[in-house]
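Supplementary Methods, section 5.1.

A reviewer requested that the exact input to the structure prediction be made available. We therefore reproduce it here, unchanged from the version used in the analyses.
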Amino acid sequence: MRKVPTALAIALMSTITLAACSPAADQTTTPETTSTTTSPSATAEPSTPAAASTEGTAITLTAGEVVMTGTLNDTQVAQDFAAMLPVTLPWFRNSGIEYITELPAPLTETGPFYTDVQPGDIVYYNPLDSITIIYEETVSVPTLTEMGEITSDLSVFDDLPDEVDMLVELG
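The structure derived from this sequence is encoded token-by-token as follows.
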């Protein structure tokens, strides 16, 4: 099992994010919508989040007294992550837009990749075997796979500590 010192992991993620991500133009978020399930495309070309279904497996994330809800979609990477649950992982705030955790081993990454990240998206970043929860508007690198979304109020992320352990479990 590969271990990366916490400070190194934070520095790597900060460098990548600061180089590749910047606040997007003033955009409005849309309310949660129900979409039909679609199959992931077989290409590795960037696509919109609609290429991955957000219907799927319900999850709960607990950080201390704060409980958030979400769903994992039907992508292979999300299914791999669901098979790991329940799991408690250390998460780190990055640039005031996201929380990141590094996984102990890579997940099966088959795409589709996309760059149209939205607040609430749960994404897998395969170069660092990490999962990111986006909670503010941003732009992205084209190596993300959408795994699902946070379905509860995103404002709770504002009050979480910069480093927090979160229990992620089914249901």
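The longest strand covers residues 87-94. These observations are discussed further in the main text.
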